[in-house]
Amino acid sequence: MEPDNTEGWTFTTLKAYFESRLDAAKTALAAALQAVEKSNEKVAIALEKRLEGVNEWRQTFSDRDANFAPREDTERRLRMLEKWVGKLSGIGAFVGIVGVLVTIAFAFFGK
Length: 111
Hints:
Largest sheet: none
Shape: rod-shaped
Strand content: under 5%
Helix content: over 70%
Low-confidence stretches: none
Order of helices and strands: HH
Mean pLDDT: 83
Radius of gyration: 46 Å
């Protein structure tokens, strides 16, 4: 026989109460775990898309680097062009002097 209980609780009602609270906690935990799993899936998809973008940039830079001339080769070609232009400048100055002399000769001696 149970002692007088002014609150109305008995072992049976107390057990039922805790079982309902436990069931509610299990339901809430299951919902939270499901939300975490769904969130993880979204994060994984977003990360995959981000990595695809990073890989595209990496490929772009690899292609760019592959198409650029090596520095040593470029510097060698520039030195060669500078020498060639220098020679042409010397020839141009010679042609200019000859042109001036021819003009002076025509000026003094006529046509």
